[in-house]
Structures are given as structure tokens and as C-alpha cells.
Amino acid sequence: MTETVSGQTRRGRGGRKGLKMRRIFTKPGIHPYDEVRWERRDVVMTNWRDGSVNFEQRGVEFPESWSVNAANIVTSKYFRGAVGTPQREWSLKQLVDRVVGVYTETGRKHGYFASDEDAEIFEHELTHALVHQVFSFNSPVWFNVGTPSPQQVSACFILSVDDTMESILDWYKEEGVIFKGGSGSGVNLSRIRSSKELLSSGGTASGPVSFMRGADASAGTIKSGGATRRAAKMVVLDVDHPDVEEFIETKAREEDKIRALRDAGYDMDLGGKDIVSVQYQNANNSVRVSDEFMRAVEARSSFGLRGRLTGEVIDTVDAKDLFRKIAKAAWECADPGIQYDDTINDWHTNPESGRITASNPCSEYMSLDNSSCNLASLNLLKFLRDDNTFDVDAFVKVAELVITAMDISITFADFPTEKIGETTRAYRQLGIGYANLGALLMATGHAYDSEGGRSLAAAITSLMTGVAYRRSAEMAGVVDPYDGYARNAEAHKRVMRKHAAANDQIRTLDAIDKAIHAEATRQWQECLKVGERNGYRNAQASLLAPTGTIGLMMDCDTTGIEPDLALVKFKKLVGGGSMQIVNNTVPRALKKLGYQPEQIEAIVEYIAEHGHVVDAPGLRPEHYEVFDCAMGERAISPMGHVRMMAATQPFLSGAISKTVNVPESATIEDIEEVYLQGWKLGLKALAIYRDNCKVGQPLSVAKKKTEDKAEPAAAPVEVGPVRTRLPKRRPATVTRFSVGGAEGYMTASTYPDNGLGEVFLKLGKQGSTLAGVMDAFSMAISISLQYGVPLETWVDKFTNMRFEPAGMTDDPDIRMANSMMDYIFRRLALDHLPYETRAELGILSAEERAAQAAGHDPASLHTEDDVDPETLAQSAPVERPKQEKSAPVAEAHSSTELIESHQGRTADAPLCLTCGTKMRPAGSCYVCEGCGSTSGCS
């Protein structure tokens, strides 16, 4: 492991300076591979929906400690060479050697090491850390380094565009090159004249929103042309741009168009032939707001929109009204997000070289135009000892090692454009970060949304960045500061002092964060001292990325800064198959909180069955918060996420990739408040996503029926299903409904004893083909009900299904619907299922939700005298032999689907286009546990 001697360097052979390295994990004369138990595995990855094989490679070699999932993802994503040929990599050793070899040889060549012995120590320590999943480089490193391909190491890019047609066309081309390589980029379009300004020829300018159409079409074409994943891009517009209102409403307006086209009979499904006519769907949009604007919002005063050429105010708007439009659009479609311009540039180390105007697609990398950033993330749980103390010394030295390797990569890296290459080599922006924060907090008995949790996260982040910049200053003494340092020296040192001052403001609460904070304080003091003498090698050093695919590679329970998604997860097994497990951090946390082994076993069993800790046997209510997760029972509040971001932001060069989820019931005012608090708490960027799914309600609020006494088990008898037809005259109800502007009618007929037995659906304005499909679907439902299939089975399968038309309804009990099917089966559930069953499925009426919000038990609205359970028969009665009851087993194929089965709600996550499993959130994008594919972030 790395360590400096006598300051930071000593002279090696030939009198040249270099870094002195010292071991910590490895031993002289023993290669890291020799201390690992290796095994051969077969990797066969299938699309579970149709059984097709997506990838197959047999006999691959991995450490025994690596999970099946991690090995599958590395084999399919990162091994190079054609499958089935001798050139194909088959061992993790080959992959690590390919990458580490290039880093080590480049370090030797460019004078980073004091001696050949130091270079060997660097090589061994880097190898050990990667093989033991202590950290990982971002995906482009694994894709490209050591191969005949260009040595691209960066995942994040920022472009620029000026107010000329030549520059706009260059923007299209540069984005295309980046997308072709599977990476993403961001750009600020505020230099382009608005549609309210004149051209030199006398005509009116098109405005930036119109040029966004061409870029969006390009991104969509490259995506559909066979790239490894969808194009990822960010488009930013300043809040004082005259076209900002059009920009704000752009994506929300397109959502309305999707609904209208679907109602007219066009194919608007994902991948449908007509979806390409919808614009602006390939980018995240963000408004860049200033302190001046936010103060005007608070004061409810006017705000001037300025022309791009003269800078003069050409229009005036009410700031509060404009801010509400931003929140309203985000409420409708999650765009735009917000970037806080003055905060971003107040922490800018290179203001003399230009302002920071944009970010990468996930908003964590913020730097100069035409630049890129190479990322790496530490696995925090690897530094937690068995006695629940944090290995501060190892963390310092690993961060030191990683930042050294990351800087070396810029020396040999290739870039998609010459402009990006020049800027990146001149400023050498890096992005060290971490994953598994949520798991670390839980394992140490800290609630994510707590002062203790935030203090620990702040101390770790401060230590990481302090070490990174201290090492950067040491490297500057060996291989010189970055080229742009001289003109920005005072500004850079000012930002370093701001970081150190923020560190002084951390208020520690426990022994674990006190020790980390003490070392962070020492590192910042050393950083300022060495930086004053040497300058700095890197303009930026740290940020918090999504860690999607590499988080899976490191077997992390949580990604980036995120809390645990849930307490149970889906684990693949060697030899095929899978199982549900309770996260390993749960028993570790219970032990830390003082519970005895038998108590821990009982609580873990309860969690395995219910997916949450509410009413777990023996668990004290004051400890519930330690097990709060992103989803489900006791989900962390939106401001809990914002406060965690605010705790760590002062210790990051860049920003944080994270989407703050707000509940479906959130109002536009709620979103305004989140965006306002983000500004007040000093965040650099913030995006929200309003959940359109109903949150499952606790089963404990529903009255439990007394179970019938068990009868002697009868011998198994083969009984086929029996159909019970409805009489010719039967009671029926007709419901007229509207979902996202699309209207329809539903006729539900019941048996004389009120059991549902027939459903017919009629949608307005559909063609004959769709009408026929709906008739056939209605008959299928009806026949299945008459054969005894419980209505709750249909409800469970079809609620939360997402496709257009979707959105607002005219039903007070169901304010939002994800699709026609989602609405129809929610309405049937409300009309025909008992409260207890609906509570398990997370379907409540408006009256029941109001009772719950007021702190009352919704079950109290239903008494045994009100309704006879026998009259709520879900379908035709069927005579069956009595058998012992068993819990239903959900057919899950990922952790997200497993969580859904436990919590009675559907996660708002897309299906993986490669393998068909439901993805899970990772920062502001999604990652597939099955194959490692992401929705745009590395």
C-alpha cells in the first residue's frame, strides 16, 4: 500500500524524484493471486421471459468469495475478445492484469515511482484491492484499457455550444461520437439566442428548444442503432434565458402528445414504430438557477429574462410563478431538475479558465466545458472491521493509492474529441467516490435519516477528499501541478480552505465518527501545507457517482450515497437458481444494537416473511429507524435524502448523483419546498421523481380473521376446475372512466350472491383491431373468474402495469393510474374485494387514505356488522379438497421484484432491455442486477 516518506517523495535511481510506496495488504515475495482461493464457474445468462440465452461462457475463473452475480456481470460486460475464441479472456486474473499492467507501466515511464520496487508494490496493492473488491474503476477502464481499442477511461463528459450554426452542428457530431462509445454527456444551451431575438439577417432566431429536437433525434437513432445502452445526456438552460418557460414545459407537453397519439390508435409502446415521433425523450433536463432568482422567489418579486447577445432584460416574469412552473413540470414528468449555479461556481477551483455551466447526465461531474472525468469508487463496507470500528488507516492508504492510479490514467488516456482531450489533460479532473454508505450506516447501528448517520457520512466524505487532495499536492511535487493551476492558484487554494473549514464544522456523536473526523482534520491540515508548497495535480478530485454496474461488481448492498433499497434481496446461486435472503447488514446491525443471538434469529425470520421490521418480535420501536429503507414500510422521507446530500456536499469537488423520490400523494407545493430547501442547504444539483405507485399499507392495520380450526388432512384427490356460469339475468354496474384523457367504459356483472363473474371493457376511439383485443381480454378474465380464479390474483398481476395512456383520472379514489389496466383492476378491487385483502395489495379508497393520514386505523371504517364477508366472494365458488394453507410464493427475478412481492406495490423502475428483469435505482439512473446493464450511467 502507498505511504510517503519524509514529506512525500524521495529520489530513486538516477536521481529522479518519485513516490515512495509501502505495503499494507500484500507481502514481499508473495503475489496477491497466491493468497486467493480460485474456482471455475459456468456463466449462462438468460432472458427469463422467453428463456433465450443472452450470454454463455463456461469455465471462467473467479475468487470463491465473489458472488455469482458479480462474476456473471464481469464475464459478460468486461471480458474482452470474441466468445468462443482463444483470444477471449476467461479469468479475472487476465482482466486485472490487463488493466493494472497499463497503469503500472505508465507510472514507471512518467516518473511517478521512486524505484522499480515501488512500482511493484503499487502493482501488487492495486491488484489486491481490485481482486478483493475494495474499490473499482468506472466501466470504460474495464472496457478499453489494455485493448487495441482507444484507451478511453472517462465515463462523464461536458460539451459546449455557441450561438453559431457551425457550433451547433459540432455539438450534434460530438454527442454522437460519445454515445457511440456508450458514454454520456451534458451541455448548456444558454448561449444560443432565444426565439424572441433577431438574427443578423433580420429574421427571428429558432431558439435552443428547437435545436434540442435535432440532438434528441440523433441520440435516439444512435441508441436504436445498437449501442451497448441508451444514449445518456443532460441539457441545461439558465433560468434567465428568454425561452426558459418553453424549456421547462417541453417534456411535460410531449407526455400529453403520447397519450393523444395512443388514443388515436398509434403504436406508442416502448420500441413501437410510432414512438419516434415523440421528441425530447433521450435527455435529462435541468434549469440552472441563480441566487438572485431564488431570492426573488422568496420575495415573490419579478425577475428579468436577458437577451443572449446584449445581456439586457427583454422580458420580465414573476419569479414565484416561474418556480412553480418548474415544480409543476417536475410533478408531472420528473423533469426538469435544478442546478444551483452560484453554489456550483463558489466551489469552482478554476474560475479564471471559465465558469462551470453544465454537468454530465447524472449531475455528479461539474467542471469546465469540453472536459471529462474518470471515476472510481471505494467499497466502504470493506473498511468496517469485525468489531464495528472503521479502519481509518487502511481507508487513507487505499484512497491514496486509487487517486494516484486515477491520475496516471489521464497520462495514457484517449478522448473522443481533441478539445476534450486538451482540457482534460490540462486540468486532470478526477472523481473518487464510494459505494455502500447505506449498508455501512445500518451495520453500525445508524439510521440513514439521523444526526449520527449524517455525521458519519460527512466525516468519511471529508476524509476521502482530504486524502485525495493531499495526495494530489504530493504528486504535483513529483510530476508537476496541472497546466491550468498557475492562473487559478489563488482560487484553488481558496476552495481548499473552504473544504477544510467545512470539516471543522462537523459535529461528531460517536466513537466511530470521532476517529474518522480526527484523521480528516489532520489530512486537511497536511493538504493545505503541501498544496501551498507544490500546488495541486488535479483541478477536481471527488464526487459521488451512481456506482451501478461497478457496485454489482464489488458485491455492494447499496449504491453511491443511497440507503438500502429494502431489507430483503434476491441472490443467485452457484449452479443456477436463486433464493431470497435478508441483507447481511441486518443481523450485524442487530448485534451492534445489543440483541442476543436468539432475538436476532427471530427478527431476521420475521423480516424474511414480511420484508420489514414493524412489529418484529423483540425489536424495540426506537430501533426501527435503523432499518428504514428507500422503499416500503417506514420509507425514508424526501427531506431525509436531501439532508444526507447536504451533509456530504461540502466535502466533494463535484456533486452527487441522486434522485429524491417523493410519494405519489406529494403536491406541487411539496416539490417546490424540496427544491427550495436544496438551495438553502447548499446542494449543487437536485432532481426529484414523484412515485406514481400506491405505497403498500401495513398488514397490521387490517383486522385479522380468526383462523378456522385445522381439520384432519384428507387424502389428496384430483379435482379439476369447475365452471359456474352466471345466470341470464344478473346484477351489473357500469363505470365510465378517464385515464390520462383517454375514456372508457367497464361493465362488471356479479352472481346473485354478489361474487364478480364477468367483466367487459370498451375503450373510446379505438380501431377495430384494438376493440377485438379488448373483447378477447374481457372474455379471458370472465371465463377465469367463472372457473374460480380469485379476483385478487388478477389485481396483483395487473395493477401498476405501466404503459400509455397513463396519468390523472376522474376517479377520486384513484387519482393517478399507470395505465388503463392499472386503473381497471384497482377499481375492481375497490368495488369487489374486502378491506383486508386490499390493504395487503396497497389499494385503499380516498376515505381510507384520509383516515390513515389522520392517524386512524382505516380498518375501523369496516366492521363485521357492515358487511358479510361471504357476500364478497371474489369469483365463482369451487369445491376443492381441504389442504393446509401455504404462503403464496412470488415469482421474482430480481431484488426489485422480490421487494414488490413483499410490499404490495410496484417499484417505478424500467425493465432491462437485455434480459427482461426489473432494474433497481442507482443514483439518478437504473442498473440491472441480472446482467449489469444501466439506463445511462457507468
From TrEMBL:
InterPro entries: RdRp_reductase_class-2, RNR_2_N, RNR_lg_C, RNR_NrdJ/NrdZ, TSCPD_dom. It comes from Actinoallomurus iriomotensis. It is an enzyme of class 1 (oxidoreductase). Its EC number is 1.17.4.1. Residues 43-133 form the Ribonucleotide reductase class II vitamin B12-dependent N-terminal domain. Its cofactor is adenosylcob(III)alamin. GO terms for biological process: DNA biosynthetic process. One of its GO terms (molecular function) is nucleotide binding. This is Vitamin B12-dependent ribonucleotide reductase. Pfam families: Ribonuc_red_2_N, Ribonuc_red_lgC, TSCPD. Residues 728-830 form the TSCPD domain. It catalyses: a 2'-deoxyribonucleoside 5'-diphosphate + [thioredoxin]-disulfide + H2O = a ribonucleoside 5'-diphosphate + [thioredoxin]-dithiol. Belongs to the ribonucleoside diphosphate reductase class-2 family. Catalyzes the reduction of ribonucleotides to deoxyribonucleotides. May function to provide a pool of deoxyribonucleotide precursors for DNA repair during oxygen limitation and/or for immediate growth after restoration of oxygen. Gene3D superfamilies: 3.20.70.20.
